Amino acid sequence: MKTKELIDLLNQEVDRHREELxxxxxxxxxxxxxxxxxxxxxxxxENYLVELPGISSYRVSDTGLVAELxxxxxxxxxxxxxxIDGLPVTEETGLAFSSEHPGQMHACGHDGHMAxxxxxxKILSQHRHLLKGSLRFxxxxxxxxxxxxxxxxxxxxxxxxxxxxxxxxxxxxxxxLVGVNEGALMAAGDFFDIVIKGKGGHGAMPxxxxxxxxxxxxxxxxxxxxxxRNLAPIKTGVVSVTSLHGGNSYNVIPESLTLKGTLxxxxxxxxxxxxxKIESLTHDICQAYGGKGVVTFASRxxxxxxxxxxxxxxxxxxxxxxxxxxxxxxxxxxxxxxDDFSQxxxxxVSSCYVFVGSGGLTKDYPHHHPKFNVSPASIVTAAKTxxxxxxxxxxxxxxxxxxx
Length: 404
Fold this sequence. Notes:
By secondary structure, this protein is of the alpha/beta class. The chain folds into 2 domains: 275 residues, Zn peptidases (Aminopeptidase); 110 residues, Alpha-Beta Plaits. 34% of the residues lie in helices and 24% in strands. The protein has 11 helices and 16 strands. An 8-stranded mixed beta sheet has the order 1-2-4-3-5-16-6-15, sandwiched between helices. A 4-stranded antiparallel beta sheet has the order 10-12-8-13, with helices on one face. It has a two-stranded antiparallel ribbon with strand order 7-14. Helix 2 packs across helix 4 and helix 4 packs across helix 11. The chain is elongated. The two termini are 18 Å apart. Keywords: Amino-acid biosynthesis, Diaminopimelate biosynthesis, Hydrolase, Lysine biosynthesis, Manganese, Metal-binding. Its cofactor is Mn(2+).
């Protein structure tokens, strides 16, 4: 089939399945579940896939699953990933299909990712005579805590994979756009805990204490100089203290204080620099006041930036420009947000991750907000984006859009 005919077919098929696509998204939005607890979600995905001809699925852990679709024609193996977990957020959208699980919400668009990939899988199963090679669908748990990708990798999901593709619905980008970057797209990210140990006592006799709150105040201010006064201005990084806890009384200076926060950078070199400065500042400032500071990081040394394969990303960008009639594909600046898709890309498999714009004309709430929502049109574009990624490596017989 000629490329133009194939493009038209794929786009028309998604449009034909639009109502089902949005219904699936609503179903999944109602049942958000936290990392490694996505039991109802996994059951839903499994029950949907079992009805699709030519597709077999299997679980590699208690939650999340992998599905395979193999053609009769030799070709590449493409893996396509959608994340499936929700967030510990109480929904305030007022949507008719709001979360039925108290304190849990799909506040990052993962419901849309799953719905788009399920419809893409259905369309591909119905047109598997047009395929070559094989497809592996990864419905991955626990992205929000940064552990699902490593679990899947340990279970061998990248075995014999030639290409890997993923996407994220992205409200900072207009619904009419798909953002592609031919290098670093998302930051390496990690979380830190700092426990400051002092000497507690009466609030009226601070001279008898080593006040961890005063130490913490000094440390918080100093941590903000790591990026602004220590990292070169042409580089990008962030250190944010997001939680402070110590004491529970008006007149008692506590024994200890705990700080929590995050650090992000677009390169491993800069990430290591941030790690080192957080450790040294904590040690030196606490020591200067007579206290002690202990720093722990959640992911070091696993933290890694999400870096697209330049060749594959260029092919994806060109292919999406040709394939998405209602959306435009363009180069996008990297973000300091993170995604554990980076764990797949660091293995060396040719991978590409894109942002599918979901911003609207009215006020948008940011990802992880209780009123976060994605536009229906963006979910349609996401399904088409998945299909056109398949077209480039596993459907087009001979075309200069082909990625290998």
